[in-house]
Amino acid sequence: MFDITIIGGGVIGCLIGRELSRYRVKTLLIEKDSDIANGTTKANSAIVHAGFDAKPGTLKGKFNVEGNALYDRVCGELSVPFKRNGSMVLAFSESELPELYNLEKRGRQNGVPGLELISGDEARRREPHLAKEVVEALYAPTGGIVSPWDLAIAAAENAIDNGMEMSLDTEVTGIERIPDGYRLITTGTAIESRIVINCAGLHSDRIHNMVATPAFKIIPRRGEYFVFDRSEGNHVSHTIFQCPTPNGKGVLISPSVHGNLLVGPNAEAVQDAEHTETTAAGLASVREAASKSSPDVAYSAVITSFAGLRATPDTGDFIIGEVKEAPGFIDVAGIESPGLTAAPAIAIHVTELVRERLGNPAANPEFTPTRRPMVHFSHLPAEAKSAWIQKDPRFGRIVCRCESITEGEIVDAIHRNAGARTVDGVKRRLRPGMGRCQGGFCGPRVVEILARELNIPMTEVRKDRPASVLLTGVTKSASEAVIA
User: Fold this and answer.
1) Around Cβ 12, how many Cβ atoms within 10 Å?
2) Most buried residue, 85, 280, 452, 459, by most Cβ within 10 Å?
3) Confidence class for position 449, pLDDT limits 50, 70, 90
4) Whole-number pLDDT of residue 319
5) Predicted pLDDT at 484
6) How far apart are CA 27 and CA 50, in angstroms?
7) CB 419: neighbour CB atoms within 10 A?
8) What φ, ψ does residue 255 adopt, rounded to 5°?
9) pLDDT at residue 441 above 90?
10) Distances from the Cα of 119 to the Cαs of 90, 92, 126, 128, 132, in angstroms?
11) What is the pLDDT of residue 481?
């Protein structure tokens, strides 16, 4: 029996697992997909919010500001790219100023440091590509950008380094009460656990309903985005917001920590928690809205688009706490924006709830907060590159030309704890396939490397989820091809 089982391998579940690994507890993280960070975590705005939007007194407001303050330490320990680039909220007319001032007031009530109201001219001085219609802006220096999937993967790896166990391709289909806790019926083997933490994201209401009376509903809300080539990565240096609407924080323009430009999202309620397709109408609405902030974004430099789903709760706030009807079952649900920002603080809070439930277990004397950094060969000085190639010649073989990713890096990413098992898993860890060609050249080579290193046929290599095989069989042998 496990002490704790975490359902869901998004950034929240992975960070909770890491915090729990500080203690002498037996923890298991289960994920229904073939990799962690495969749901909302892989497809969002990648923004670390300052904390001025959430209503004072809410869990969103509390954990946003607390989580923001933890990012420098957490990302430093886990070697995850993070930058405090600051953010601006734009007002385009006098009629929008009351909302801008309300955001500034909220921010001060929430404890956001350094907020500043600046004129439209000052906003354009800092960001020359802003529209001439901007009359005033709210500047927040503590706003930041991060790679959400890097953070989740790093947290899971560090948690496993410190003793956590993980099971992928494990979907919960039912939960039974047993004398000492719960039995999780899954697509794999049954799992018994004293405590269960529900971090199932878009499916968290369904998981909750397996143990208690329905108490909330998750509404999937789709947001579509454009991703631009690095040639447009300096179009803005801050994260640029518009005044929020009832549907969310609106369309933003932001640099990414990897040097691209991100524009989006729109907000559309959908029925299915798997509806992540983009639409022509949705992307057109994103482009139209973004042009209000900056009319000269070069859409000819778009290299891809994507859609993500937000787990919007009908309660209006995060849902975090032990379920009264189900002792030892803890909901961590409805974690929409600013959930990524709040994640480190939520992880600490939930860990304290668990520790109290388990009678304050002892600290793990072997816990280490750091993980071995990923090797990013192209960023190394010449001497270090030579040393890596001498140590392992595979670091001298470029697989992805767009992002300059080597075979050695891919092999390392596969064999780490919480390592890559799919083509998209390699992509999220190292970025092959995220450049201009979008995997056109490097994709087949990544499949070959995965098959070799995992010792499986290439026909079993997945793009992403269990059914997403890329190859179905051999069309002809090499000798047949020569004869033909």
Assistant:
1) 31
2) 85
3) very high
4) 98
5) 52
6) 32
7) 19
8) -75, 160
9) no
10) 10, 11, 11, 13, 12
11) 53
State pTM to two decimals.
0.95
Q: Which segments of 21-135 are extended strands (E)? A: 27-30, 47-48, 82-83, 87-91, 116-119
Alpha-carbon distance of 365 to 125, in angstroms, equals 52
CB 287 within 8 A of CB 226: yes
> Two tokens at 367?
């816990």
| Annotated catalytic residue, options 49, 235, 238, 349 | 49
Tokens at 417, concatenated: 């704890």
pLDDT greater than 90 at residue 306? yes
Alpha carbon distance 278, 435 (integer Å): 19
Concatenated DSSP letters for 139-206?
EETT-EEE-HHHHHHHHHHHHHHTT-EEESS--EEEEEEETTEEEEEESSS-EEEEEEEE--GGGHHH
Residues 379, 434, 199, 47: what is their CA dihedral angle, to the nearest 10 degrees? 70
CA-angle at 394, arms to 389 and 400, nearest 5°: 110
**Which tokens belong to 6?**
């975490």
| Lowest mean per-residue pLDDT among 134-143, 214-223, 424-433, 461-470 | 461-470
Separation of alpha carbons 424 and 446, rounded Å: 10
**Predicted local confidence at residue 398, as pLDDT:** 92
* Nearest CA among 402, 477, 482, 381 for reference residue 445: 402
Are residues 312 and 302 in contact, defined by beta-carbon separation less than 8 angstroms?
A: no
d(Cα 303, Cα 229) in Å, to the nearest integer?
Answer: 6
Other Cβ atoms closer than 10 A to 274: 11
Calculate mean pLDDT across residues 394-421: 93
Distance CA 218, CA 39 (A): 14
98-to-138, 243, 422 alpha-carbon distances in Å: 12, 10, 49
CA distances from residue 8 to 163, 212, 231 in whole angstroms, order as listed: 18, 19, 36
Q: How far apart are the C-alpha atoms of 241 and 127, rounded to whole Å?
A: 13
**Residue 129 is a catalytic residue:** no
- pLDDT category at 401 given cuts 50, 70, 90 is confident
Question: What's the rounded Cα separation, in Å, for the pair 159 and 16?
Answer: 9
What does the DSSP assignment read for 213-240? -----EEEEEEEEEEE-GGGTTS-SSEE
User: Would you say residue 335 has pLDDT above 90?
Assistant: yes
